[in-house]
Amino acid sequence: MMQSMEESPPLARHFEIAEGLRWAVLQDLLDRGRISADEAEMLISPRRTLMRRKRSGRFTSGESDRLARILDILRLAERTFGEPAKAHRWLRTPNGAIGGHRPLDLCSTGEGGRLVETVLGRLAHGVYG
Length: 129
Prior knowledge:
Strand content: under 5%
Shape: globular
Helix content: 55-70%
Low-confidence stretches: none
Number of helices: 8
Order of helices and strands: HHHHHHHH
Structural class: mainly alpha
Largest sheet: none
């Protein structure tokens, strides 16, 4: 049985991302309501590019890296809050710990994603209320 990208060991994930993730990874996020089409456009690639990737079935390595970052942040937030709905609401609500920005918006860059991970880690350890 094939593992999901989220369950792959780090080295295997590196090669999956470098090769380009399959469109099905994003489609699953969209189908399950974990991100919206507008968010995918803002965080991964412009809409026209996304449609080309849908036709080709695979993302570039750069797009795959952004998509993997979003998956990691979603998974961490869901684990931190214990309920997907709470996690998704937190990701989309302006947060004082990150200058009043929405955490999900910062996930368009590696630096922003690391900042969101840090805030989630602090929340998990009771540092922020």
